[in-house]
Every structure is written in C-alpha cells, then in structure tokens.
Prior knowledge:
single chain, 20 helices, binds phenylalanine
Amino acid sequence: MGSTAREHWSSRRGFLLAAVGSAVGLGNMWRFSYLTAENGGAAFVVVYVAITLLVGLPILLAELVVGRGAQRSPIRALVHYGGSVWKPLGILFVAAGFLILSYYSVIAGWTLRYAGSALLGGFEGDAGARFGEVASGWDAFGFHLLFMAGTVTIVGRGIRGGIERTALLLMPVLFVLVCGLAVYASTLEGSGAGYTYYLKMDFSQILSPRVVTQAAGQAFFSLSLGMGAMLTFASYLGRDHHLPNASLIIAFSDLAIAFIAGLVVFPMIYALGLAAAVSESTVGALFITLPRAFAEMGAVGPCGGFLFFAALVLGALPSAISLLEVVVAGSIDGLGWNRPKAAVVMGMAIAVLGAPAAWSTDVLGVMDDVANNLLLLTGGLLLAVFVGWFMKDPVSEARIGAEGVAWFFLWRVLLRFVAPAVLLYVLWEAIPGTFASIRALWGGD
Ligand code: PHE
C-alpha cells in the first residue's frame, strides 16, 4: 500500500532545510511586507506572530505527525487514519497546491525578470510602467513558464537528488543574502523612520477584524500550512525524527526571515521617501517601490537590486517545489504514475492554469485571496479538528522520537479548542470579503 520503497530524506538537516525552504519564500518578503504596510505596521506584526505560535505551530506539528505516521501522501494519509469521509480534505489540499503554485510561479517569474533587469543595467525609467510590462502579458507568461520548468526539473529528480539537494544549496545562501541586505539597509541615511514605522506599536489597530483575518491568512501561507505541504514532506521522514523540535525550528526560522525581510524593506523605502507609494498597497507595491529605490541609489543600485531580487528567486524556488510535490506525491500514490511523468504532466497543467494570473494582476490578487482566506484556513481548520478530535491517539505518534517533551498536553488543547475557535472566527470574517472580491472581478472591467 504505497509505503514500500518510499523515498526518504538522506539526513535530518536535509528535511529541515527543505521544510524551512517551503515556509520561507515570497510570503516572507513580498506578502509580509505589503500586508504589514497595509495594516498599520507593528500592530499587524504582533497579531501575525501570535497567530503563528498559537494556531500555526500546533497545526504544523499536526501535519508532521500525520505525514510521518502514515508514510503516505495527503489524501491517502487522511484516509489511512480517518477513513474515506476525510478524503475530500485531502483533495482540498491537492487543489490548493495546484491553485497556489499557478499564481505563485507568476510572481516568481516577475522576480526572475527583475533580477535579470538589475544585471543588465538597473532600473531607470518609470517604475510603474515597467511593472505593467513585466507583470502582465506574454512576458509575464514566459517567465512563469521558465520558473515552472525549473521547478518541474527539480521535483522530477526526486526527494534526495532534487528537493533535498536544492534546499541544502540554496537556503544558506538565502539566509546570508537577507541578513546582508538588512545590514546594508541600516546604513542608508534616513532609514530610522522605516524602523519606527515597522516596530512602533499602534495599539488601536491590533484587534480589528481585518488585521486578524489578514494576519491569519498570512501565518498559514507563510508556514505553508493547511494544504499538506508539511504533511507530504514529513511522509518521507524516518520514525526517529523529533517532530516537536522540527515544528519549532520551522516556525521560528520562518518568523525570523519574515522579520529580517521587514528590516530590509521598510528602512529602504523610508530612506528614499517612498512610504506613500507602499501604503496604497496592492500585490504590485513592492515591485514598483523597490526598483525605484534601487534606481535612486546610484552606482550601488543595480548590484543591490540584483541581490534583492535574487534573494526573492532563491526563496521562491524551494516553496514552489513543495507546492508541486504535494500534487506530484498525490499523483504517484493515487494514480500510480512515476515521478517524472507526474512532475511534467502536473507542472504543465499548473502552468496553463497560471495564464490568467499572468495576464491580470487583479485576477492574481483574487486567486491569492481565495487560496489564503478560503482554502488554507479551511484546510487548517479541518486538519486541526481531524487530529484534535478524530485521529486515534495522535500524542503517542508525536511522542515517537520525542520522549522528553512536556508540551503535548498544551498542543492538544491548542489543537482542539484554540485553533478551531480562532479559525472559525477568521473564516466567518474573511468569507464575505473574499466573495465580494470574486464578484467584483467578474462584474468589473
Ligand atoms: N510558504 C511559502 C511562502 O511563504 C508559500 C507556500 C504556501 C508554500 C503554501 C507551500 C505551501 O512563500
């Protein structure tokens, strides 16, 4: 039943870097900074961190427990533990992976293109007009295809030879790049106002429903939760792995990189007096503002710009790999396909589904809204309920390889009560807005 001859990670470090690589990505840099700008700076950050720790972390551990325990891809793993009534949840996971990758890769294509432009001479000219050219039409579609081709190639090579090797190679470079950029940003004159905006609390903003829902969506997206990516990666783990520690390492690395990315973006934007341009935020804000900032930096601009956009590409690739892996693992287990076939066929289907996002950033924005505010949050809620209430004795499974851990009781409480309550509230708040944006897209231009 699918568990013989299953591939496994060659080392703990390989698994951890691949999982951190899945978590750290455009979500930490592009999405985190534009949402923070849109939702009042530090207040948003506090709510986001709280939701990550109280809701995200327990669900992350739940995914790891189900994946390692079942040694199967999401749909089969859920059926294995819960019977076929849980199959639709697995299908929801795979569908979410499909949808998210289709537009994620379009944005990754923009970053590739911007990294290339930086190398070829920088960002002179009108940044808004340039974004228009880069972000929609055949150019955007072409770079989306290029990025998908890279992702397919790596996933096609398998867990050790493709996914693990890429993570081992890219993640250390990414970490050094992001830290280096943060140090550089701190040397810019006038960066102080950026730190103030980013780190100073405005308590009146904290508990607005909008801030809470956006922060929850961001926490799930950034941790790659609610769609089986972590579950799938954990299914290639041996039984001795310490899952609670893994969940802590993944969550804190993800928070740390998001936080440091903010230390790059905000000082830079404020030092160059571009704050107003970001707060009228859309998906494109960062891609318009930062090139403008780099253009104003003079001689160092192209080099800084290249390093920044290269960091985005390096972050995006391991995340995209994990998204495709969910779909590919499902096709291998469920349809009996071999890995290369699954990677190529599913990759092509996802590339086609991304076409509308490559032609319209409005469509892309709505896809992102639907994926986060509906699919990931619903997936996370149902998984919390599944592991918290239906799975038989998840704590014994979690305890394997982690005997001394003292917080399993707390984990159970968070999973059974806190996470479902928060997620129900968030979904209740988020659903009308998401449907309104779908309708606006339909009815509008
Ligand atoms: N976590 C990734 C990021 O922050 C995106 C992602 C979402 C990856 C869901 C896998 C699954 O960029």
